[in-house]
Design a protein that fits this description.
The complex is a heterodimer. By secondary structure, chain A is an alpha+beta fold. Chain A has a single domain (about 45-210), classed as Sortase (Sortase, Chain: A). Chain A is about 30% helix and about 30% strand. Chain A is built from two helices and eight strands. An eight-stranded mixed barrel of chain A has the order 1-2-3-4-7-8-6-5. In chain A, a hairpin with an 8-residue loop joins β1 and β2 (about 85-90). Chain A is elongated and about 95 Å long. Chain B is mainly alpha-helical. Chain B has one domain. Classes of the chains: A alpha+beta, B mainly alpha. At the A-B interface, α1 and β7 of A face α2 of B. Chain B: Keywords: Membrane, Transmembrane, Transmembrane helix.
Chain lengths: ~220, ~50
């Protein structure tokens, strides 16, 4: 004969067990989903960039760049220090949608090779992470920008870590917003430290050589 | 939850296993191609520009 009190205790213990198991399963599932999301951020986003780069580079190779438009290709960027195969098509614009396609040129900053500051921002950890290793650049390293009309070779002059609102670094003369530029500069920016939005890593360079393209 | 799902899957153990793998693959695909792209803009671990 069942004693009512014990049956109730058993039923209660059963409910607790089911609840705990469900909570545990949901927690493990949430953990797996977050892990998968991290994998997506690091590698999944790169697939989009790769496909967009293919389109932009084809556009540049065909020489079809008549005018510069937001989201369109601007020039090829090569950095020999980061590998022989290091090349990205620079896109016009620095909004999220532009930077997903590749390194982006600040609209309004100087064009490649022109007097002023050619400012380019790129992702460091997501979307193919084009600027992941620009911290390895040293004074004198080449940054090559191949625009439609010429191939410009800049040389790295300095590297800096700044706060996100220190816009002086992208002034026409980097760091000196009140001075009129007389030379062509380049500035690369990305996030710092890696996986963080706390600061910005900045690499400055100055134009050393211009080779006009034969038409 | 998973025990309940396993009981609901039809067939013998082999068929159940196949069904479970297919379900998991569908879940991962929906996350990867639909949900994660929607989440991604909210994550600001890669802010690269300087601006005020």
């Amino acid at each position: 004969m069942a004693i009512p009190g014990i049956t109730i205790a058993h039923a209660y213990a059963g409910r607790v067990r089911v609840t705990l198991r469900t909570v545990g399963e949901l927690s493990v599932t949430a953990g797996l989903i977050l892990t998968l999301f991290c994998a997506y951020l690091l590698w999944g986003t790169g697939a989009y960039t790769a496909s967009q780069q293919l389109l932009l580079q084809r556009e540049l190779a065909a020489g079809r760049i008549e005018k510069i438009e937001l989201g369109g290709a601007l020039a090829m960027l090569r950095i020999p220090r980061l590998g022989r195969g290091y090349e990205y098509a620079v896109v016009e614009g620095v909004d999220a949608e532009h930077l997903k396609k590749g390194p982006g040129h600040y609209p309004g900053s100087a064009l490649p090779g022109k007097v002023g500051n050619f400012v380019v921002s790129g992702h460091r950890t997501t979307y193919a992470a084009p600027f992941n290793r620009i911290d390895e650049l040293e004074r004198g390293d080449e940054i090559i920008v191949e625009a439609r009309e010429a191939r410009y070779t800049y040389r790295v002059t300095s590297q800096d870590i700044v706060e996100p609102d220190e816009i002086e670094v992208i002034a026409p003369v980097p760091g000196k917003p009140d001075i009129r530029p007389i030379r062509p500069y380049i500035t690369l920016s990305t996030c710092h430290p890696e996986y963080s939005a706390a600061q910005r890593l900045i690499v400055h360079g100055v134009l050393k050589q211009t080779e006009l393209r034969k038409e | 939850m998973y025990a309940w799902l396993w009981r609901k899957l039809p067939g013998d153990t082999g068929t159940k296993l196949l069904g479970a793998v297919v379900l998991a693959a569908v879940a991962v695909a929906i996350l990867w191609y639909v949900v994660f792209p929607l989440w991604e803009p909210a994550v600001t671990l890669d802010e690269v520009t300087v601006r005020r």
